[in-house]
Structures are given as structure tokens and as C-alpha cells.
Amino acid sequence: DKTENIQDDHSGSDDYYDDRPLVSDLLDQKSDEIEYVRNCIQSNELYLANKAHYDDIWILRFVLSHKSKKSAAEAALKTILFRDEEKLNERGDIRHSVGYVGGTSPIFPAGKLLRSCCEEGAIMNALPDVNRGLITYIVLPKFDMNRAAEKMDETQIRDFTIWVSEAAFQIVDGITRETGRLTKQAKFIDLQGMKLKMFNRTYLKRESGVSKELEDFYPQLLGSMCLFNSPTWIHIIWNFMRPILPRRTAEKVDFLPSNPKNVAKSVLKQVSEENLPEIFGGKNSEWPPPTAGSRFSK
Fold first, then answer.
1. pTM
2. Would you call 114 exposed, middle or buried from its count of C-beta atoms within 10 A (0-12, 13-18, 19+)?
3. Cross-strand pairs, 124
4. What would the pLDDT profile of 213-235 be if each residue is shown by its tens digit?
């Protein structure tokens, strides 16, 4: 199970800032913990019925996300049960569904309500560097959070989040196996023009509650969340958000300086400057970018 579907360890990006660890190294370093988790779940009927989905690379993400091998095993077992309840393995390959939320591009069914709260180009999922991670670009002023609070309850936000997380996980897992490097998703959020009244606490609480419920089911999916062009009053929102966000998510939030002379290293770890859109300080003038889903069109 250890090396199945992994390509040459030296494949993937040659970018100077790309510091993704080699999966082969991680599998060796965490072999004892992986074996422990596998032994804990291998007698489960749902594991046995879907064994191909739950190999060592899948287990590795749980080991990396938890401080103890016992908690990693508990999370892996809970995830197997969750995936059965939500029929996720039966959905098959849904990578092609990852596109724009807002505008006229095709979207996954669970995103229809959220789409009605977005202007063109509000939320875009892209693979600017084909051998690196999924980037979700969010132009927050184009997302009507107040309208979303009126139209979407927690169940609907949960349905949307499960669908988009499943598709994103499939993408980064595939790249991980193709390149031999542990690959994750990054979120780049542009706050330029955002006003305090555009934030809605009810929606933020619902979304954070869903994130806390689901975070163990998609381990090592989110690598970073970079906030661009933050207003001077952002601490007001952050003081409200930090306690209700999942701890792992809060630790990955990076407030970037406004109008920097150079692109931050934390950004270049996720995407090359050549392919980073100009709106986020890069050199790529193409906007909106091609959707990530277009690379997997059926």
C-alpha cells in the first residue's frame, strides 16, 4: 500500500519556493503510526468494502493532523463512517465540478444557493501551477454574506462544504500521487473594498460550525489561508472569528501587508509568481483564471 500510485519522488514543481515534503519520506518517518492506524481500522466492514480508498497515503494525512496515533485512528474510523453515511465513495470522480461560484460557469449542484449570493468572479478555484496545489481565489466584496445568511441555513452550508471539500480533496490527493509530494489547498482572500457592514455574524457562525464538524474528515486539505488588502479594522472581525474557527484553520491564517514591494514567501510556496494573478501581486494578467475543473472535464 505504501508506494501504490506514487510517481517518481523527483517529479513535480522545480520552483525554488516549493517546499512540499516528499511522500516517500513521510511514509518512512511515520510508518509505525500508519501501521497502528491501519491495524485499528482494518477489521471494520466499511474499510474492507472500500479498501482501495483507504491506503497508506490516505492514513498518512490523519497521522500528520493529530498529535497521537490513537486520535489519528479514531478520526480515520469516524471518517470512514462519515463517508458511508454521505455516500461519498459512490460519487466517483467529481474533480471536474470544481469551477467558479458566481457567474455563468458550470457548478456543482450544492453550490446553486451560494451562487445566487455571488457576483461574477467572487469565488474561483484554479490550478495555476499544474503540479502544485489547488488555489481558491475569493474576492470577498463580491460575496453577499448578508444575503447568504438569509438564504442558507447550516444544513445547506454543510451540503455545499462537503461537496466542495470532497472535490478539492480529490484534486490535491491526485497531485500528491502524481508528483510524490504532499499537496494541499490554499485560499487567497482579497479584502480590497470590504466594509464592516458586509460581514454577517450569523453566516460566519454557521460556516465556522460546519468547518469544525468536518475538519477531521479532510485532514491536511487546507495548507494556508492568505488575506490580502486587509482593512485597518480587520482586528474587529478577527477577534470575533478566531475563537469560533477550527484551531487548525486559525493557525493557518496569514495577514499579508498591503502594497508589498515583493510577493510574500508564504504566497510563493503555493503558486509561482509567474502564474500568480496580478490582482494578488503576481505577473499573470489572465483574469479570471481557467477553472481547476476544466483540467478534469469529462
1. 0.91
2. buried
3. 100, 137
4. 999 999 999 999 999 999 999 99
